[in-house]
Amino acid sequence: MLSDRQLERATAAQNRVQDKVNAAVRQGYLTRGMRDWALALCASDEAAFDTFCAKAGPSFAYLSQPAFGAQAFRQAAPSRAAS
Q1: Could you tell me how far CA 21 lies from the centroid of its own chain?
Q2: What does residue 78 show for φ and ψ, rounded to 5 degrees?
Q3: CA atoms of 9 and 15, how far apart (whole Å)
Q4: With 0-12 CB in 10 A as exposed, 13-18 as middle and 19+ as buried, what is 49?
């Protein structure tokens, strides 16, 4: 019973770490290339990961935004509706 509880806690901790890192990537605090490093940092020292995100800010959020004029181009493109 003790080993089951330890496995359950380890799985919960691993899921929490993955969720935190995935959220940080989505919000632009990290790039996808930083994901493995962030997982290792968060698993070993969650407080250090939180401090890093707080100090770094969403520095990479612009990478997931459309490029200048891309939205206007999509809206101006003719539709290909069949007549």
Answers
A1: 5
A2: -65, 145
A3: 10
A4: buried
State the Cα–Cα distance between residues 48 and 68, nearest whole angstrom.
Answer: 35
Report the amino acid identity of residue 77. Answer: A
Q: What's the pLDDT tens digit per position in 14-59?
A: 889 999 999 998 888 888 888 999 999 999 999 999 999 888 878 7
pTM (2 decimals)? Answer: 0.63
Among 6, 16, 11, which Cα is nearest to 49's? 16
Residue with tokens 């935190």: 20
57-72: per-residue pLDDT in tens? 787 776 666 666 655 5
